[in-house]
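Exercise: predict the structure of this protein bound to 2-oxoglutaric acid.
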Amino acid sequence: MKNTLTVAQVQMQVVRNKAENIASACRLIRRAAAQGAELVMLPEMFCCPYENSAFRPYGETFGGPAQQALSALAGEKKIWIVGGSVPELEGERVYNTCFVYNPGGQQVARHRKMHLFDIRVEGGQSFRESDTLSPGNDITVFDSPWGKLGLCICFDLRFEELARVMALQGVRAIFVPAAFNMTTGPAHWELLFRQRAVDNQLFTFGTSPARNEQETYVAWGHSIVCDPWGTVLHQCGAGEEVAVTTVDLTRVEAVRQQLPILSARREDVYFIGQKGKKDCAI
Ligand SMILES: O=C(O)CCC(=O)C(=O)O
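Solution:
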């Protein structure tokens, strides 16, 4: 198993033209590959404005143009690509989906966002993804030369159970294409990435679009990498950036050994209801 991983996070500016977004993503992925990235990661909805009215018209079925471009580029550059997310059309439904490609250009994972982002913060951000999107129902973990890796999309990160299940399945890093906003970004972005990293003693990578003040939904930016100790190894600003970070994955096993919290959990008492009779999953 490889222990050193160089990741590039493409914090790109998303515009209103889908083809232009795909072209920008490819241009920045090429730049990342030239800088030595072994795995390149894009933001949530990298080829679509983050807007309910846009998800269906910008969407694509399985094997659509954004997916084809990323698969071809992964094969050409012999890199891994965690392809942010795209609106994926299937029948009447639209999913917020992340596809992952290996250096052979094969799609090796697909995560459909499981928790839809429906919030209404007084005096701040409102959004209802469930007006247009359907939730996925599967936890996504995939094999790589660096061991098992996990995926979740933006709001999914708020659900500690999801990250915990992935950690218990053995993942060493969780990749999170995301687009927090100007209300929840400053309040919770860094906190959540550090929190999931510390709780589960693994790396977290969050990649956001660059901020665009003209858009209806203004992304926070601040793409981030946290290590299993909760240290922020890199955090971008708000503008367009390709951030390249090399991590030492043996930190996962080292921290788990030095501070053994995962192995010290008391599963025998973590349940709600009568002792010995688990009637509520946690
Ligand atoms: O959880 C948040 O604050 C932001 C989530 C979000 O923007 C999303 O799920 O797309």
